[in-house]
């Protein structure tokens, strides 16, 4: 099984794990006497299960990401930014049904998680220079699209199937000379 497929399966398992632990964590927090208020216990459960999701998500994908200072900052900010749509849903639910605080707390967590995972997918994606360098390290970058870095090896026409850019053979060859070490 390819490593990426294994990581995708583990990512699904991480989401299912956080969801499966939601009720037991709530019961431990609320029934265990840590927090007696249902709403506060739900918010604490959101934080604990969110932390479980963040840690498992990071552990699954950390080796695939080229960690730069910018990515670290953006990943940290994405934790907060993902809370914006979740908070909007919570506020909207509370305005529509004033006595739905508990349901709103659970829905807020259910909105935050996919927003944060989507944000990490954007923040952690490979840049063009990183892709070109990776392909070069694999020996694939001998003929790559100057626009997106896609390998052009073996194609019958000088059009990139990834981004659709068209080149003459001269343009393609010249652009490879600029990126060679």
What can be said about this structure in brief?
The protein is mainly alpha-helical and 181 residues long. It folds into 2 domains: 3-125, no CATH class; 129-179, no CATH class.
Detailed description of the structure:
- The chain is mainly alpha-helical.
- It has 2 domains: 3-125, no CATH class; 129-179, no CATH class.
- The chain is built from 7 helices and no strands.
- The chain has helices at 3-31, 38-61, 69-81, 83-96, 101-124, 128-137, 169-179.
- α1 (3-31) packs antiparallel against α2 and α2 runs parallel beside α5 (101-124).
- The longest helix has 29 residues, at 3-31.
- It is elongated and about 70 Å long.
- The model has no long low-confidence stretch (mean pLDDT 86).
**DSSP summary, beta strand count:** 0
- For the termini, the CA-CA separation is 34 Å
What is the general shape? elongated
Compute the number of structural domains: 2
* Number of helical regions: 7
Bin the helical content: 55-70%
Strand content: under 5%
H/E topology pattern: HHHHHHH
What do the pLDDT scores average to? 86
Largest sheet: none
Q: Runs with pLDDT <50, length 5+?
A: none
Q: What is the SS-derived class?
A: mainly alpha
Instruction: Kindly provide the radius of gyration, computed on alpha-carbon positions and rounded to a whole number of angstroms.
Output: 23 Å
